[in-house]
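Our consortium's second objective concerns turning raw sequence data into structural hypotheses that experimental partners can test. To show how far this objective has progressed, the report includes one record in full. It was chosen at random from the queue rather than selected for favorable results. The single chain below, 329 residues long, was entered without modification.
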Amino acid sequence: MKAIVQERFGPPDTLRLADTDRPTAGAGQVLVRVHAAALNPYDWHMLRGDPYVARLMGGVGLNRPKRRVAGIDAAGRVEAVGADVHGLEPGDEVLGFCPGSFAEYALTTADLLVPKPVGLTFEQAAAVPMGAVTALRGIRTVGRTQAGQRVLVNGAAGGVGTFAVQIAAALGAEVTGVCSARNADLVAALGAAHVVDYAQEDFTDGRVRYDVILDNVGNRPLSRLRRALAPSGTLVANGGGSPGHVFGAVGSMLRLVAADAFARQRLRPILPSAPAGPTHEDLLAVIALIEAGTLTPVVDRTYPLADTAEGVRHVERGHARGKAVITVL
């Protein structure tokens, strides 16, 4: 099969298209014929082994990538199921978390898959798993957003932000989205009552205070973010950062946890987005929102499998509008 492989940590240029053996579904496994795979900041972190401390923690590998084929989000059709797999059959259209999704076929488990909504294309469906689950956890699970609250989403036009704005609006919150001027119309159309152009206005100046802040960017100091937070509000931090740091987002999360111990405000890192935690339940919740018509994936652009490296570069630059997706089939 065709797959995007990497033999060492490094920039997107280390990725290459190669012929590899097609995996076989063992007991408890599902083989998915990948039609589309989404790109996430997660992917460039895995590609670079960044931040460096993550290598010591065992999540990405120490001297070389733990997984030769990158990618995690996918949509496609079930090709085969192993023993002890129930509820899925060959031909079923699915979306979910499939490690090694930058390939024609990828192995996963049934609990990391859900049926693809009929109204979504495979490209739209691939854009859902990590972005929508992370947004759901940030806004609903960790942020505990309630109707009537003021919610601010920093990075509102990105892969997580576009989902977060919609979810917060669906919960009845008054949503403010922070983005660039070129994305203001998009963010407003997704349900934001107010849009802040980060190049023209500082949302951390304290003039408006929010009950919940979901920070997807990590470009403001914690002290400034707390200035924009209501006295009993909740700050939810979702990574951020750029390549080449020893601690990166991990260090930011640790500082957040330490500060929370002494704060009246709730300062929380987001729960792991994939593939850890109550993933299946969150995926089902996201699918319910999509089928109800209150949540729609925003696909920025698509790339053929051979151009995956260019897609990773686009996401790494941090200016994606919605999700970037790899078209495999």
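The partners drew two points from this record. The longest helix spans residues 129-142. The longest strand covers residues 29-39. Both points have been shared with the crystallography group to help prioritize constructs.
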